[in-house]
Design brief:
The complex is a heterodimer. By secondary structure, chain A is mostly helical. Chain A has 15 helices and no strands. Chain B is built from eleven helices and two strands, in the order H-H-H-H-E-E-H-H-H-H-H-H-H. By secondary structure, chain B is an all-alpha fold. The relative contact order of chain B is 0.20. Classes of the chains: A mainly alpha, B mainly alpha. At the A-B interface, helix 6, helix 12 and helix 14 of A face helix 4, helix 9 and helix 11 of B.
Chain lengths: 337, 289
């Protein structure tokens, strides 16, 4: 038997929906264990910290996609645009002398939010198909621009000579990736807490409402355009921060940060992990990157084959991704007791 | 061939090729409301089938084309039955993911079967070289493309407007439930329409080996072009698809001749702009797109 949630004194006798909101806000034991496990990774796998940072960064990127795709229901094929903008912003700043990592993150966040705001207007009008095409188009446009502007971006060779200063002026990045991991984990955790607070709040509920039934959302007074516009902007900001983190931890920006493949990959990560579940992106990124690491060793083309099979099977048979499946399992185990 | 008329001619030939490949996509996107990003896979299948038939099996170029059409149409039956049908009513996101997955598998399969290099194709004597028309030296192969494109466009319009099967398609698209009540097997009608569209894609892919090239990444590289034609033209409309294909063919060719350093930038910018101006396409069926 689960204990009924404790009701704080000032909420005794409050209407049930308030108690439900309250319940959504509470951190469950599984969640706390998840973050403790991420801290433990630092001590348990000291040799794989660079790889672990990549997983966290991809997880943050997938979380940003989750905001617009999982919560708000906007299908996009060009999310890498914002990731790339963040990566290039941080990289270019570092190349031109601004080496402080946090300043780089802040600049990337601003650039991403600006780009998100700018593109939110065309993206939010029209049907799914028009959205797909416009997001795909904007992504390709940026890729092509970065490809042609070799003087600024280095073109296909990528941006070389990125040097990042120590975090907070104290901790210099080391070759084993210890500082990188701690830095990435800190940033990701802070942003996650922000996203979580936003998504369990009534604001997050209105997003789900828009996704499930736009007409009803409008009828109960949800400002649909404004909601979608600002969640899109926020998502772009998060994606840009993820891109900047990648630049800072690898000290390099490749043009593939803007590519279609990256947009497709993050989509797969999120779907495999499970949408609208906050943790889906992280779980999906871990599954995806570890599988890629193992399978791409054999041959990159065969990795593409297995990725395709994964996509087909997960759309046909897997509802809710890994996290959804685990929750389903947990609910059944609990029900049996 | 740098004269304006020459560029126009090349552009129209290219546009006809785009039309051939894209018109089937227009069916799945516009009529069946299925976001089929894997359409280029059928074009690629057609290309590889042609290369294999003319190269290894030693069948003539012209004789191979009908085989390619039938082969890719048959292939589409299998794919529709196994993969597309369960997701007709699913959210668009699922359709996107499924079809992107099909692209990835196809890329890997083509690399496994034929290797990563560009495939050569032998064009018969009758279609190589140039022929003088009104003082312009026109490539025979491009004349063939224009001829086939026009024939297919006419056949499609005639088929849709004047035949019983065309009437069934139009009825199924306009109001599925009423069509079903009248005894039309809507599922089978769509399946056949899809097969014809995929067959045409295969034909276009086969004819396009000479122009677009053929390698395992074909479906990803060309995805944007085909989507572009359909979305700009208005999904579900044959004349719209033709118009958009010709426009984009000419624009892309002109861009390659006059502004080669801009690369694909122009075509992507044109797409975003056109979509902003016409969210449901130039000649779109407003209700569906």
């Amino acid at each position: 038997m689960m204990l009924p949630p404790r009701v704080p004194a000032h909420l005794v006798g409050a209407p049930p929906y308030l108690l439900q909101l309250r319940q959504r806000e509470r951190w469950s034991a599984a969640e706390i264990a998840f973050w403790i496990a991420l801290v433990a990774v630092y001590f348990v796998f000291p040799k794989n910290l660079l790889f672990a940072s990549q997983i966290l960064i991809s997880g943050l990127f997938a979380l940003s996609l989750d905001l617009i795709l999982g919560y708000a229901g906007i299908v996009t094929l060009g999310h890498a645009a914002f990731f790339g903008i963040g990566a290039y912003t941080a990289g270019l700043l570092a190349v031109h002398g601004v080496r402080d990592p946090l300043a780089g993150l802040a600049a990337a966040a601003c650039a991403g939010a600006f780009a998100g705001r700018l593109t939110s207007f065309p993206v939010l009008r029209g049907s799914d198909l028009a959205r797909l095409m416009i997001t795909l188009g904007i992504g390709l446009l940026l890729y092509e621009a970065a490809n042609r502007a070799t003087a600024l971006t280095g073109g296909v060779d990528g941006l070389q000579g990125v040097e990042i200063g120590p975090v907070l002026g104290l901790f210099a990045f080391d070759l084993k990736g210890r500082v990188a991991y701690a830095y990435v984990l800190g940033v990701v955790f802070v942003l996650f807490v922000l996203v979580r607070a936003l998504m369990v709040s009534p604001y997050g509920l209105t997003l789900a409402c828009i996704r499930e039934n736009p007409k009803r959302a409008q009828a109960i007074g949800v400002p649909i355009g404004a909601r979608l516009g600002n969640v899109y902007t926020f998502s772009a900001l998060l994606a840009a921060v993820a891109g900047a983190l990648l630049t800072q931890t690898t000290q390099f920006v490749g043009i593939d940060t803007l590519g279609f493949q990256r947009s497709a990959d993050v989509l797969v990560m999120l779907i495999v992990g499970g949408t609208a579940r906050l943790y889906g992106g992280f779980v999906g990124a871990a599954v995806f990157l570890i599988a890629q690491d193992r399978l791409a060793d054999l041959n990159p083309v065969y990795w593409l084959f297995w990725l395709g099979i994964l996509l087909i099977v997960s759309t046909l048979y897997l509802e809710g991704g890994v996290v959804g499946g685990l929750r389903h399992l947990a609910a059944r185990v609990r029900g049996r007791r | 061939m740098h004269s304006f008329l020459g560029v126009l001619f090349d552009g129209i030939a290219y546009g006809m090729l785009l039309f051939l490949v894209s018109v089937g996509l227009s069916v799945t996107l516009g009529m069946m409301n299925f976001i089929n990003l894997a359409h280029g896979v059928f074009a690629m299948a057609g290309g590889y089938l042609l290369v294999t038939l003319t190269g290894k099996a030693g069948i003539g170029f012209l004789a191979a084309l009908p085989i390619v059409f039938v082969g890719t149409a048959a292939f589409s039956f299998v794919v529709e039955r196994l993969l597309y049908r369960p997701l007709y009513r699913a959210p668009h996101l699922k359709q996107v993911l499924l079809t992107v997955g099909i692209i990835f598998v196809a890329v890997a399969a083509a690399t496994y079967g034929w290797g990563p290099q560009q495939q050569p194709v032998v064009v018969p004597e009758a279609f190589s070289g140039q022929v003088p028309v009104f003082g312009l030296e026109l490539s025979r192969y491009r004349l063939l493309l224009i001829g086939v494109g026009l024939a297919v466009a006419l056949a499609l319009v005639f088929g849709l407007e004047r035949t019983r099967f065309g009437a069934r398609i139009r009825a199924s698209v306009d109001r599925q439930s009423t069509a079903e009540a009248l005894g039309i097997h809507v599922g089978r009608v769509f399946q056949l329409t899809l097969a014809i569209g995929c067959g045409l894609a295969g034909l276009g892919g086969a004819l396009g080996v000479n122009v677009l090239g053929l390698d395992p990444y074909f479906p990803l590289k060309t995805l944007v072009y085909f989507l572009l034609v359909v979305v700009v033209g208005g999904a579900g409309s044959v004349p719209g698809t033709l118009l958009a294909a010709l426009l984009l063919g000419v624009a892309d060719t002109a861009g390659k001749y006059y502004l080669p350093e801009a690369g694909a930038f122009i075509i992507y910018a044109a797409m975003v702009l056109l979509l902003l101006l016409f969210p449901s396409g130039l000649l779109g069926r407003r209700r569906l797109a």
